[in-house]
Amino acid sequence: MRGLVVVKTSTGFLTGHELKGAAPEVIQILMDEVGDQCKVKGSGCIRSREHFLKLIDMGIDRMGVGYKSVPVVLDLKK
């Protein structure tokens, strides 16, 4: 049996490029390339609830959200 295969975006530390981390355009490229052969993890630069929800709507399987962004993304009140 084959193990779980996951492809993921960069963590957002890539420099010198316009798109960083889990930009919707990057996620779409990954999803177009792997189809249903792999799971897709969006990681890096997810700092708003709107971005988080957009990626869910796009159908990604996993998400990496930085600890400082979690309260904002999950709409938690302090």
Describe this structure in words.
The chain has 78 residues and is an alpha/beta fold. It has one domain (6-73). The chain is 32% helix and 14% strand. It has helices at residues 24-34, 49-58, 70-73, and strands spanning 6-8, 39-43, 62-64. The protein has a 3-stranded parallel β-sheet with strand order 1-2-3, with helices on one face. The protein is globular, with a radius of gyration of 13 Å. The N and C termini lie far apart (45 Å).
Based on the model shown, name its key terms.
78 residues, alpha/beta, 3-stranded parallel β-sheet, 3 strands, 32% helix
Helix content: 25-40%
- Per DSSP, the total helix count is 3
Number of domains: 1
Which term fits the overall shape? globular
Strand order of the largest sheet: 1-2-3
Total count of strands:
3
How would a textbook summarize the main sheet?
3 strands, parallel
Taking the alpha carbons of the first and last residues, their distance comes to 45 Å
Q: How much strand?
A: 5-15%
Radius of gyration: 13 Å
Mean pLDDT: 85
Structural class: alpha/beta
String of helices and strands: EHEHEH
**Low-pLDDT segments, ≥5 res:** none
Quick summary of this structure?
The protein has 78 residues and is an alpha/beta fold. The chain contains three helices and three strands; from the N terminus they run E-H-E-H-E-H. The mean pLDDT is 85.
Sequence-ordered SSE layout with sheet pairings:
Blueprint: E1 6-8, H1 24-34, E2 39-43, H2 49-58, E3 62-64, H3 70-73
Parallel strand pairs: 1-2, 2-3
